[in-house]
Hints:
Blueprint: E1 8-19, E2 23-34, E3 43-54, E4 65-79, E5 91-94, E6 98-99, E7 105-106, E8 111-115, E9 124-137, E10 142-161, E11 170-194, E12 198-214, E13 219-224, E14 234-239, E15 246-249, E16 268-273, E17 278-288, E18 291-301, E19 304-307, H1 308-313, H2 316-320, H3 327-330, E20 347-349, E21 352-364, E22 374-388, E23 415-416, E24 425-433
Amino acid sequence: TFDETDELQSFFARGNYTIANKYLFTATVRIDGSSRFGSDNQYGVFPSAAFAWKINEENFMGDTFSLLKARVSWGITGNQDGLGHGNFIRRERYGGIGISDGGTIGNPPGLAPVSFANPDLKWEETTSYGFGIDYGLFMNRLNGSIDIYKSETKDLLLSVEAAQPSPQPFFFQNLDATVLNQGIEFSINYDLIQSDDLTWSAGFNISYNENELQDFGGQIPAGTIRGQGLSQAYSQILAENQPLFSYFVRSFEGFDANGQPISDDSQQFRGKSALPTTNWGLSTTLNWKNFDFSAFLAAQSGFYVYNNTANALFIAGSINNARNVTPNVLTSGEAGNAAAEVSERFLEKGDFIRLQNASIGYTVPVRDDSFLSSFRVYLTGQNLFLITDYSGLDPELSTSPAQGDLLNGLPTAGIDYTSYPRPRTFTLGLNITF
């Protein structure tokens, strides 16, 4: 057996300095040590610094803004998530004795390797830069923020396929590449009504993000596709100057006179990724006397989902195997013996709007001499409705598939293979304080 105890040591220091309550300086340094790395790379040093300027405190600003603060920041963070135990050392196991029914001893016991030595494994590091403005008007009744950011992740920790023969199918390594994320975020909140019996506030936020893999010389297939005739098929590739989870598929131009798909001779990048470029949310809170109501609407756009469920099951070939199909298969013009392909036929826009949650409650008045301090009854709903053109059950998919779904050890995103949809739930509850 192996001792798989991991140890993490962390040291943290922070300094703050403020001048005239207008100029705020912050500096931090964090040192993390992990037993998951070799002795030469166990400790990582992760500094950060930030400066903020309360512009509204300056004499030249007047009273227009109740808050106007500019922020700038820089920092480095480390990551070891998913690494697991002992990935930097060679491990061996003493094999058992094999004895046949006749008593013959075969496979004499001995040491056999079960993992590689990888002493150069080190912390994944992300360097982030940010500039932002916080604003408030009318005594902060209207407030929000604007942020511009850029982050670069280097030495990305990935579990990649090992060259065979090997004692293990995958091993961790630091990818010699840079993952770039950059974008802008905007939020605004407003107290629409403020009175003794009625208050109503609303908030809106939106963000835009660009993602790209840079300084990477190779290509790694990813995104396993399942189905008859699709063995070893894939739909994504990690490649330079492409977003992560970029689709690498054939085109689809319909079917020819024989019911065979018309497409390119080879898979290509189509300028489509599983990563959303835009996220936005809308929230509201309403209180009237003892009643309260809140709701949150969320949306994502600019991404695509590969409908592997349709690729594997909802094709003309399924009819030959006496399986159910969707009605559009019957009129598609596809032949029952059509070639199975990973193509744009099953690549769909995943844009959606979802009512994430809504809640309504009532606070029951209690007498001053009551043994109860407060009594509130509420009803909450989750995932109340979904608006999308995606033909599957839900375009918002998990990015953490089981090991058997990985290709070359890489995680995948945006591939829907019989994914279980998010449930719609309702909760009736009581909040009682004594």
